[in-house]
Design brief:
Radius of gyration of chain B: 18 Å
Order of helices and strands of chain A: HHHHHHHHH
Largest interface: A-B, 14 and 22 residues
Shape of chain B: globular
Distance between the termini of chain B: 50 Å
Largest sheet of chain A: none
Structural class of chain B: alpha/beta
Distance between the termini of chain A: 53 Å
Oligomer: heterodimer
Bound molecules: adenosine-5'-triphosphate, magnesium ion
Structural class of chain A: mainly alpha
Largest sheet of chain B: 6 strands, mixed
Strand content of chain A: under 5%
Strand order of the largest sheet of chain B: 6-7-8-3-9-10
């Protein structure tokens, strides 16, 4: 009779121990990554390369999703607000929704899929083909050479991507508002500007930077830990994207509370 | 040769992966300027042994001394300082596929030693020539090379910084007999002319006889025999005899399904 609960407790104990070990390992990885971002040697060439790979080449994805998000947002808010005759608020609600929330979150999820996966796959392949071992034997710190440029590039380029995405999203909403919902162009633009506060945009950009850091960190972490050939790299890629997405939404809540909850 | 501090000394080095113990307590000394060849069956932990010495894998127990100083447990700057003494050819070559061939060879010079790119490029091309690769190969990407070419690029990268200690993990595997001979001579030259200390792993006994001063055989997690290369054939050690004569019967059991 006692066997079952005992076994159950042992399982819990083991799981907890494994979870704690993994947390400790992750914390150490993060600390080493952050240290590598601020301590020389730096690799400007690699940083430039990552700025392009992470930032520039994500523009089409982020721009297109932002466009459609703005369009659908305008439509839905118009239909919803018509229930209590508040259609005039569409432009203001759209711009606040995009800058504070949807801009950074949707761009974050897209970049997690595109960049997080690419980082995990690249670093994971380097790990299983012993390239990371080779880096170390050639007196080069993989954290400085591989991790830091990706962390910095993602944290820098995500706010830029989101700013551009915000503009495109608001433009998408404007197109629908003016062409489909019958707003006068000047009125729509007025309503967009008049209620927008600096903090709306700034909070979104700070979120974006944190999201970028999370995405690159998860990509690097899972790639770095990957074991066992192509299958291991595949698993690392999945874990990187899934974990980054979950952490990103969690961080979104915390940051929103930090910025706006009184 | 034995009175001086050995370049590398291993005492009771143990390494396990999960429940699987690969190294059970390896003791070995390598004198300065000596070329040791490690032989042993596939999967006996030869590559793991090299990775423990160079600090890529932490041993579970035991001590590793390089120039008389303990290196187990070193981290950060101290570890980097020791690493500069080493050059390693990986079994899989482990070329950086984001860089082209000459950048691979010059990597240690540019990143490790801070040499200017132009100068490092010239040196890299020179190294490539020494392993029998022309200047045109220098601008290829590693994915465009054959297996044997990758090996040679890996070798050029390992010796480019002229380290004090060289590790070669199966340097001639996958090479034709003529190229194997060129590589053997190159390794001998590195040891004799540069005064490097070398540990090589090979299954190629012809190659072992050429490059070794001393041979050690790893089996079952221990060094079961070591001695001068001249004594390889008269070792009267059952493991060594079976290995060098390539017999299926003997103390080394190879598990295969009976068919
Ligand atoms: N990182 C690792 N994680 C888990 N097990 C490992 C790892 N590296 C090596 N092993 C195991 O250790 C054993 C020894 O591996 P090693 O690569 O040293 O063999 P080897 O003697 O070099 O063989 P070969 O001649 O085929 O190259 C193998 O059984 C391998 O499965
Ligand atoms: Mg091996």
């Amino acid at each position: 009779m006692l066997a079952f609960p005992l076994q159950f407790l042992t399982t819990i104990g083991r799981t907890t121990r494994l979870a704690l070990a993994a947390t400790g390992q992750f914390a150490r990885f993060t600390a080493s990554g952050l240290r590598a971002c601020v301590q020389p040697p730096f690799y400007p060439r690699l940083l430039g390369h990552q700025l392009l790979a992470i930032g520039y080449y994500s523009l089409p994805v982020v721009g297109m999703t932002a466009m459609f998000t703005g369009m659908v947002l305008a439509l839905q808010i118009y239909l919803g607000s018509a229930r209590f005759s508040a259609e005039s608020a569409v432009a203001s609600i759209v711009v606040i929704g995009i800058t504070r929330e949807l801009g950074p979150v949707i761009a974050g999820l897209m970049v997690a899929g595109r960049v997080g996966a690419a980082i995990a796959a690249e670093i994971g392949t380097m790990r299983v083909t012993e390239q990371i071992d080779a880096l170390e034997t050639l007196s080069t710190d993989p954290f400085r050479y591989l991790v830091a440029p990706r962390l910095i590039a993602a944290a820098i380029t995500m706010p830029m991507l989101v700013l551009i995405g915000d503009i495109i999203g608001v433009f998408g909403a404007y197109v629908i508002g003016v062409n489909k919902l019958g707003f006068a162009p000047t009125v729509y633009i007025h309503n967009t500007w008049d209620f927008l506060e600096v903090m709306d945009v700034v909070s979104g950009l700070v979120k974006a930077s944190v999201f970028g850091f999370i995405i690159a960190l998860m990509g690097c972490y899972y790639g770095y830990q990957s074991r066992g050939g192509a299958q291991g790299v595949g698993a690392a890629t999945t874990s990187a994207v899934v974990t980054a997405s979950i952490l990103l939404i969690g961080a979104d809540y915390l940051l929103s509370e930090m910025f706006f909850a009184q | 040769m034995t009175d001086a501090v050995p370049k590398i000394r291993l005492k009771g080095v143990r390494k396990a992966f999960g429940r699987k113990t690969v190294l059970k307590g390896v003791d070995i000394d390598v004198a300065k300027g000596e070329s040791l060849v490690v032989i042993g069956g596939s999967g006996t932990g030869k590559s793991v042994l090299l990775k423990c010495i160079i600090g890529l894998l932490p041993p579970d127990a035991g001590s590793i001394l390089v120039d008389g100083a303990e290196v187990v447990g070193l981290r950060g700057r101290e570890r980097a300082e020791v690493r500069r003494k080493f050059g390693m050819l990986f079994q899989s070559a482990a070329l950086f596929d984001s860089l082209n061939v000459w950048e691979n060879v010059a990597f240690g010079l540019i990143e490790g030693r801070g040499m200017a790119r132009r100068e490092a490029r010239a040196k890299a091309m020179d190294m490539l020539a020494r392993v029998g690769l022309g200047a045109d190969v220098g601008n290829l990407s590693p994915s465009e090379l054959s297996g044997g070419m990758r090996k040679r690029v890996g070798l050029a990268r390992a010796i480019a910084t002229e380290p004090e200690i060289l590790f070669f993990d199966e340097p001639t595997t996958g090479l034709d007999p003529i190229m194997s001979e060129v590589i053997n001579e190159l390794i001998v030259k590195c040891v004799r002319e540069l005064g490097a200390t070398a540990i090589s792993i090979t299954h190629d006994l012809g190659s072992a006889r050429k490059i070794a001063d001393r041979v050690a055989m790893l089996h079952g997690g221990n060094i079961v025999w070591e001695g001068p290369v001249a004594e390889l054939d008269k070792s009267s050690n059952a493991f060594v005899d079976q290995f060098i004569n390539g017999r299926a019967e003997g103390p080394i059991h190879v598990e295969v399904a009976a068919g």
